[in-house]
Please model this.
Amino acid sequence: MIRINLQPRNAWQQKVEELGFGFHSTEGTYWDESAAYIFKLKEIEAIETATNKIWEMCLEAVQHVIDNKLYTQFAIPSFMIPYIEKSWNDDVPSIYGRLDLGYANGQIKLLEFNADTPTSLYEAGIIQWFWLQEFDAKKDQFNSIHEKLIAYWRYLKPYLHEGILHFSCVKESLEDLTNVEYLRDCAMQAGLETKLIFIDEIGWDSNTQQFVDVEDESIKNIFKLYPWEWLANEAFGQNIVADKNNTHWIEPAWKMLLSNKAILTILWNLFPNHEYLLQTNYIANGMTNYVKKPLLSREGANVSIIKENNLIEETKGEYGEEGFVFQEYMNLENEFGFTALIGSWIIGGEAAGIGIRESKSKITDNTSRFVPHYIEH
Amino acid sequence: MKKSKHIQLVLITALLASCNTKKETEWSEGNKKVYLRSDSTAPYTRTHSPLLWYFAFRSFGMMNNGRYVHGGYHSNAIHPQSNFGSNGFKSNVSRGGFGRSGFRTGS
Model:
């Protein structure tokens, strides 16, 4: 993997906006085509292999947590536990997830799994694909996100309840809405009937004990870009388990286990010293170079990096109440002084493509730039 | 090849394209007219907004005894006559039980 500097396209802002990408510069530059990462095919194949293997290991880890009732490690509300188990045993549909991978010195390591509400899907699947078409259409890219999304929605169709598939997110975030509308776009192309509803507009009908949309139509299937830990702890949280429709929430409730950093300790215990894992525990356990991460946090908040027992970088935030994990530190800084992280997408249980986030800081957060990539055969 | 062979978007770009106001002639020639209403009991009127996709159909509502009561949808992009109809609130349905934990979920 190497990084090159490039001349951005003329009027690139207009070009990406025409694709519906309105948050390219929301907090400074976010979409950054003044650079690109180039991979060799064998490097991409290694990332693909690692992604598929880690996914398998994650599924084993979920089964292990359920079999051994390890929920206290995840700080999950007790009323949700039977519901999580049911969603796992019923194989409630899941569409996607994003593994955040460290890639350096030929090593690929799982940093964490954004299993519940991953974003940057549109940048990875659409924006960088169209960028490459203009840059050099003959070049390849690890990016079959779009066709895999359509194919998997089509595959899931018979497994959904009859009726509409609703899509939901907060109404204040254009980024969230773009991700959701993109997923809905793919579902529509797969032949599903869809409808958008913002998360605060979801209604609860106390007579019929079901969730309803703004036209009071039953919600039986819903993709929500809204974390399970938020849903469970809000006023309607208990209604999820009381719901007479047994609504399919996508991503399913069992993803609560995979999106929680506690899964990293489970993985390390199940697969100690595995080539794709970093040592992770609930205590620093003798490590001198490590990253302290909250069990539940978003966009790199409340993360601390300790090297030689000294704090070298940390981010602020509101997370950490549920506890922390301590993960062995992996230096991802390249020769250009950027820390680059690979977001490796899993769609329908298969590796589907990557997006790269880079920053000058060591912690990838919501200000890290999205940089496109291509494959040099 | 590791990349998608072909990409077509039916929702996002189609909506943006239909709301493009830069070519005023398209509107006057009678092409790509968009008629919208935000309430099924309100009349349709024509719409002229380039950011309709995001800004149209924001909901409105009110807090009542600590709970959010959805009133309907409105948009500054469409005519006021099309924003409000005659629907009343549905008594068995409460809203606002989700959505208070954050304003963005990106991860």
In short: Residues 14 and 35 of chain B are 15 Å apart (CA to CA). Chain B touches chain A through 44 residues (CB under 8 Å). Helices of chain B lie at 12-18, 24-28, 52-55.
